[in-house]
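User: New here, any thoughts?
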Amino acid sequence: MTITLKRQLTDDEKKHILQTHGRICFANGHTIPENEMVQFDHIQAFVKHGESEINNIAPMCEVHNKEKGILPLGDFRVKLRLKKFFAMGDAQTLKHLLEYLKYMGDIQRYGQSVVVQKLDGHVSIESPWNTTTHDLYQCPTTGWEYFYATLPIDILDSDDNDELKIGLQPRSLIDEKVFNLYRHFQQHPVLQPSIGRIYNNHIVLFDGQHKIAGLLLTGRKHFECKIYLSPELRLLNETNISAHDMFSQVRFYSSKMIEIYGKEFGTDFENYKNLDDSSIKSEAGFIRYLEKASKQTITMAERNKRFKSFLYQSIKDDPNNRIASLVSIGNKSTDKCPLTVDMLSKSIFTHFLYKWPTEDNIATDAYKREKEIANNVTLMNLLYDLALKEWNPEASPNDETQIRLKRIFRSKSIIAWSGLIHSAICGILNLDDEEERMCPFYRDLSLQDIERMKRIIERLIDWKFWDSPSNSEIDHVLADNKSAIMHWFKSNDLTTGYLMGAHE
């Protein structure tokens, strides 16, 4: 369905519009072929007070006029631009959008340096174009000073990682959220300011990037902000992470949050290992060290959570991990990235990663954490080489290989069969003790062990029911709960015995 004009255009009006815009599709600027009929539509929707006058009407090609559906032409144009922007990378932030808009000519500059001066309860912000003065406030809990201001995009930037700092920006932009906010802000006010800090004579924002992204697309160039002057970085980072995680209205658990948790934890762990004292260094000792360290405000449960994140990040970022490119940066899988960190944490990592701090002396051969990480990477590479390397996000809905892979690697399926391959791998490694079965990869594996593990994965991937016709029983079962899936697997001979070759 397309938006229809309130009245029909005359031939003279159509001629005038083409003289104004050229024979160019307003949606993305491509030339409309001479043998194709030009169509016309509102730039601003009629229902949003877009008048049916020729200055609010632009030419479109037939393809884009059909594709835009009920969107007004202006909104559809922004949607296409966002689609192009997000296709440029998997983890786009406000900084990437600012650079893109600068390249496209929508903004002249961003992130310019400023001079900050305090005097008598006020702060002045001096840039090459302007100097403004603002009241200073003080946080009653931390004593940190901050101010509120409406600031131009010329002096704002995103608080991303760079070669000089670990940024506080915990999320990547979500395309749908940016577009929905762009449409929302055409008629609604902004209720809360974006939040940032002064860093090295720059104002960098770590909260509210989606709001600013949406507002930028409406043409806004000035933004309401709350800016901290000299916050204690670690506590601010803890606060920001909590705001995006445990106190968020929608819990956010993604590879980006894993990165934030893991990097900070990893830095602390390296500092602990290099302490010049006589104590025996271990993971459990490190957790106790954090508990006693000054200014540590997180609970033991939160420390353990971040320890797990550190382990997840170590596996995900391993340069040999071929499956990493297929792990989504967000909570949901996508056509391009069928796996998520949450999915892996409930399947592979649950069974093959010992997620608790060990007492093993990290300076001795008894400490096998690096071996465990390498063994997990080996398992994931086997899954990639034997199956996921054929993943094709551009495949047609009827592509048999893609249907098969979607069945194997959908969330409930991988959670169910990961328990089976755990039992099978414990079997080939002769791990009968319950404690050993809790950490099957926390050990050296021989080439023979890895070859036998490969045969287990081959049997899993070759299970005949993955190749069932579309809309078969398996498709209904895989939408059920884990217990039902496990029962169906067992009744159709996907068992530990089968994976170990009992039927050969």
The chain has three domains: 11-84, 91-244, 255-499. The chain has a mean pLDDT of 86. Residues 11-84 form a domain with the DNA Binding (I), subunit A fold (CATH 1.10.30). The chain is about 40% helix and 10% strand.
